[in-house]
Inverse folding.
């Protein structure tokens, strides 16, 4: 593959549609949370959509991903059902995990979505195991672990990069650097460059503008192709920004305290990945405003449908937990 | 019926299950050299894809088991000592014990973790724990504590075929013990206690390495006309509560001998089950014979002082039957 390849016009439109769907679903969750309709907290991905979309466009159901507590975008981009995800966040029986996991733990194992995870950094070792399984199967599958700049400081990251490198596992370490580790600026707690930690394990590392879906698509595509060819793991750091809070109800915890300035948030909103992609589409002639607005309308219908499905769902089965402890 | 050392029986079980199912793979620190003996010959027979050394990275190795299992394999992870369970605990406590529930039953986790447990070898506190109480409390993990060759073989084969995470804990220092193992394919159902000797004066439940001193005690008590049931639970999760209650229903007296610390331990759980469901049978207090809540010291005499032995077990039974 060349470093200059780019998504086709149709692929770019598909990427936009995927990002718009994630954005739409999450804006609805934001509103439903504010209205007090959701049983638990939600950690939203708004502003980071280009990363999930750009990476997962290269994956099929046979490939594996592990995700984070901020995992709705990865779930949807990997092909997870918006209705089943929405119902899960609502704690309904129709949810993808029957209401047993909730927002932070959406998973669709049949689609290779080995789960969002409430433990920061826990997905890395699971992905490393799945990558070993993929290597033993020998049929070109890969595993991608999404993790954040916060998780990058868990010791297990170095362990996994070492094992993945020494065994040349078909794996992509995809670090989404959204600049905040919960409520702490990552710059305050990070020594050196994250990519250098991968390079120390002899894993090739690149950085990419995480709000530019074409750039993410290209970097992830190269890394995933390399993994499929048996050439081992890669590390990609995607620089992006968490527009929403660590979690939606954070104002309750902050009690008026601030950990970042509104000007910073506003500046990043101007670099919104959906706006960037719309500009790319129009500049390349891949579509015009009417094409984009048609996509937006279709996505809005999907979001409405998923939310209505979730709201109308059945309460979770209270006897299910005891049944599920063992097979 | 051949005689096999306990460690050979474990090795036999691994060979048989790896021959039977190509999805069974073994990994861990030093498994290729097989310094403990339970892995001997596996690497030569099954090769590096299915038997491989890992770096010393327990937090990752336990998590990898989840990923391997989710992707269709039946991983067997060798953790050497049960203390290292603590090093690998996030993936044990937060992932393998919970993901079946959290995914609404989507995921099966056919994981077997092997580690030896217990003291008695001057290994000091970081290599002498009996780490099963913490596993018992996790909810989604089966805990197996075989004490002889046949049970070890039968339970390990069942564990490898089980679709849930199973911790197979080998009794430290008992690997050389000889025992008869059936010739034919031998699987022991998980969750069945063994009644090793019978009597009506008291029930002595002994876990893991404590079975040996409990049996020796029972023989000596029998010579004095005091006959006791000795029960080896063999699995702590699930616990064979029916067998325990039936025995206490007969004897009315319960002594539990456990090498793990007392607080929230296996002995405490057994005591709670019997107190709650077998209270009308009891003729006296339930007695736990344990090291208390102390970490295992290095010095041989200090370690021996803490570990339950024939003297302490005898004393507990005699007190209960009114001869102490």
């Amino acid at each position: 593959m060349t470093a200059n390849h780019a998504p086709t016009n149709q692929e770019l439109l598909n990427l936009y549609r995927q990002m718009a769907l994630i954005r739409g679903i999450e804006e609805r969750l934001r509103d439903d949370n504010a209205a007090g309709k959701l049983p638990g907290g939600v950690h939203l991905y708004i502003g980071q959509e280009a990363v999930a979309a750009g990476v997962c466009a290269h994956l099929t159901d046979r490939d594996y991903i592990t995700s984070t507590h901020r995992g709705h975008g990865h779930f949807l981009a990997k092909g997870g059902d918006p209705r089943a995800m929405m119902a899960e966040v609502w704690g309904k029986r129709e949810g993808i995990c029957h209401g047993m996991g909730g927002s932070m733990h959406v998973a669709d194992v049949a689609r290779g979505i080995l789960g969002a995870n409430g433990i920061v950094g826990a997905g890395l070792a699971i992905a490393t195991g799945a990558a070993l399984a993929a290597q033993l199967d020998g049929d070109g599958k890969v595993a991608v672990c999404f993790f954040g700049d916060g998780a990058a400081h868990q010791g297990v990251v170095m362990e996994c990069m070492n094992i993945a490198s020494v065994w040349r596992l078909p794996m992509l370490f995809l670090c989404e650097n959204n600049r905040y580790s919960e409520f702490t600026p990552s710059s305050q707690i990070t020594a050196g460059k994250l990519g250098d930690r991968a390079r120390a394990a002899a894993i090739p590392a690149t950085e990419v503008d995480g709000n530019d879906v074409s750039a993410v698509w290209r970097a992830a595509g190269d890394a995933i192709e390399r993994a499929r060819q048996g050439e081992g793991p890669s590390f990609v750091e995607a620089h992006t920004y968490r527009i929403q809070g660590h979690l939606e109800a954070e104002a309750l915890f902050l009690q008026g305290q601030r950990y970042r300035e509104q000007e910073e948030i506003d500046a990043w909103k101007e670099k919104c990945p959906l706006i960037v992609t719309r500009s790319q589409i129009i500049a390349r002639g891949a579509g015009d405003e009417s094409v984009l607005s048609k996509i937006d309308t279709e996505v809005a219908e999907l979001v409405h449908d998923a939310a209505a499905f979730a709201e109308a769902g059945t309460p979770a089965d209270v006897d299910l937990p005891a049944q599920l402890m063992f097979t | 019926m051949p005689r096999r050392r306990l460690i050979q029986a474990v090795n036999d079980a691994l060979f048989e299950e790896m021959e039977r199912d190509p999805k069974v793979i073994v990994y861990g620190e030093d498994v290729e050299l097989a310094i403990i003996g339970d892995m001997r010959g596996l690497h030569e027979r099954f090769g590096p894809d299915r038997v491989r050394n890992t770096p010393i990275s327990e937090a990752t190795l336990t998590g990898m088991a989840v990923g391997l299992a989710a992707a269709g394999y039946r991983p067997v992870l060798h953790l050497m000592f049960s203390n290292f369970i603590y090093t690998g605990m996030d993936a044990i406590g937060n992932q393998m014990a919970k993901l079946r529930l959290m995914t609404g039953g989507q995921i099966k986790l056919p994981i077997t973790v092997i580690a030896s447990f217990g003291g008695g070898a001057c290994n000091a506190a970081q290599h002498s724990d009996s780490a099963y109480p913490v596993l018992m409390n996790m909810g989604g993990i089966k805990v197996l504590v075989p004490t002889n060759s046949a049970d070890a073989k039968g339970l390990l084969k069942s564990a490898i075929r089980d679709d849930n995470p199973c911790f197979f804990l080998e009794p430290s220092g008992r690997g050389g013990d000889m025992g008869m193992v059936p010739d034919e394919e031998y699987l022991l159902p998980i969750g069945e206690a063994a009644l090793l000797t019978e009597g009506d004066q008291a029930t002595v439940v002994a876990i893991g390495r404590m079975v040996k001193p409990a049996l020796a005690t029972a023989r000596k008590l029998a010579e004095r006309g005091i006959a006791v049931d000795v029960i080896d639970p063999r699995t702590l999760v699930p616990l064979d509560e029916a067998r325990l209650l039936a025995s206490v229903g007969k004897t009315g007296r319960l002594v539990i001998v456990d090498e793990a610390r007392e607080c929230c331990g296996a002995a405490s759980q057994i005591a709670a089950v019997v107190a709650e469901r077998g209270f009308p049978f009891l003729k006296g207090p339930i007695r736990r014979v344990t090291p208390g809540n102390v970490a295992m010291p290095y010095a041989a005499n200090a370690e021996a002082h803490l570990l339950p032995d024939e003297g302490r077990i005898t004393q507990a039974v005699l007190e209960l039957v009114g001869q102490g």
About this structure: The first helix of chain A runs from residue 9 to 34. Chain A has a mean pLDDT of 97. DSSP finds 13 helices and seven strands in chain A. Residues 9-319 of chain A form a domain with the Rossmann fold fold (CATH 3.40.50.970).
